[in-house]
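We modelled the chain as a single entity of 116 amino acids. Its sequence is:
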Amino acid sequence: QVQLVESGGGLVQSGGSLRLSCAASGFTFWYYDMGWYRQAPGKERDFVARIYSSNEKPQYSGDVTGRFTISRDNAKKTVDLQMNDLKPEDTAVYYCSVVIGVMTYWGQGTQVTVSS
């Protein structure tokens, strides 16, 4: 079955960096677009970044553009999110996601906390 496992979260000071990774299994990874989302306490889950199965340019939300970079390794079946210049407002649980047909699959999430 589809499985997404995030890792790499933690506590970091404002201005610091973290690299999140999502390990995928149970589907033909190279064929699908992959996304990262985040959910802060008391807020809805928001889009962060998407990387396509094709060579199309990745998409980012406006508040992370220029600071975050999404990448994928089809051989390893992983999708990473490099996060630089982190801010307290980046504090959230970060989720990896894939849409297959009519189903959206999520990982369990990884907590990112940015202290000021």
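As a brief sanity check on the tokenised model: The CA atoms of residues 6 and 90 lie 17 Å apart. The chain has a mean pLDDT of 97.
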